[in-house]
Amino acid sequence: MKKILLLPLLLSIVIYKAQTTAIPDANFEQALIDMGYDAGTPDGVVLTANIDTVSVLDVSLKNISSLTGIEDFTALKELSCYFNNLSSLNVSQNTALTSLYCVGNYLTSLDVSQNIQLVTLTDSLNSITEHDLSNNINLTSYGGSQNDMTCLNLKNGNNINMTYLSVNQNLLSCIEVDNPSWANSNWTVLNNSIDIGVSFSSNCNNSCSAVSINEQNQLSNINTFPNPTSGKLSITLEGGNPTLESIRNSLGQLLLHDNSLSGDQLELDLSTYPTGIYFLQLNVDGQVVTKKIIKH
Fold first, then answer.
1. Which has the least CB within 10 A, 33, 85, 160, 235?
2. Where does CATH 2.60.40.1930 sit in the chain?
3. Residue 4 burial (C-beta neighbours within 10 Å; 0-12, 13-18, 19+)
4. 238 in Cβ contact with 221 (< 8 Å)
């Protein structure tokens, strides 16, 4: 009988633990207490139910060194963490983010490849050396001045809709973009978008280049259009018959494996796929070629 009575108690303890989020930085937790998302004094945990519906969070100027626990803010759309002591920031689980402001920290890198919904990003006054924003197909505003960037990839299929860019006072020589002619006309030294001597290219051939998954040096006469696409996609190859091998998402997950589609002009329908980055693997005379596709 005692064992039976103990069972509900043990289950309640397990459930309680599953509903808490670790917040190891006391200053971060104190900020949450001040905003009413936690109570008492910092004890290293917060109830997950208190934070998983929060859509806007401002923890600027709070002397925070770690935002560990931010991953459980799954509904978060806007995060402001200006002028703290952050040396790293993991927002890979915050896939609803549309605005991220993290000016004036000590970040050396910032991975926003999973934040496809991101519209505004500001990370000036950090120590970021490389930035690959090619997955951020909804980005319209980016401020990344006064970092240590030597590599910046803005080739995301959405440059024409970007209303603001400022990446001056960096160490850049080449910025990868959708259309170099358009970039040269809209992003200039005079409007503080770039530094003197910075050029634009559709392939800067550097460490954060958009040419992904060994796409460099592969068959250049395979055409995929329109790319970006809202659904329909054509694949053509002069003098050859490519065969579709697979489609994977940006996480590398296999979405389709079908080698029955072949011909000098393939037609695919991606309309049911969510917005994001996809990789098509094609077989051409025994050679596997990977093409990056942006789905709007």
1. 160
2. 222-295
3. exposed
4. yes
The residue type found at 85 is: N
Q: Sort residue 25 into left (φ over 0), alpha (ψ -120 to 50) or beta.
A: beta
Share of the chain above pLDDT 90, in %: 59
CA torsion 21→46→64→151, rounded to 10°?
30
Residue ranges matching CATH 3.80.10.10 in the chain: 52-201
On whether the CB atoms of residues 53 and 73 are closer than 8 A, the answer is no
The per-residue pLDDT for range 96-153, each reduced to its tens digit, is 999 999 999 999 999 999 898 999 999 999 999 999 999 898 999 999 999 999 999 9
Comparing CA positions, the residue from 168, 33, 111 lying closest to residue 100 is: 111
Quickly count: other Cβ atoms within 10 Å of residue 160's Cβ.
10
Architecture field, domain 222-295: Sandwich (2.60)
How far is Cα 16 from Cα 73, in angstroms, rounded to an integer?
18
Domain range 52-201, CATH class: alpha beta
pLDDT in tens, 224-251: 888 888 889 888 876 667 788 788 887 6
- Residue 38: closest CA among 54, 51, 19: 51
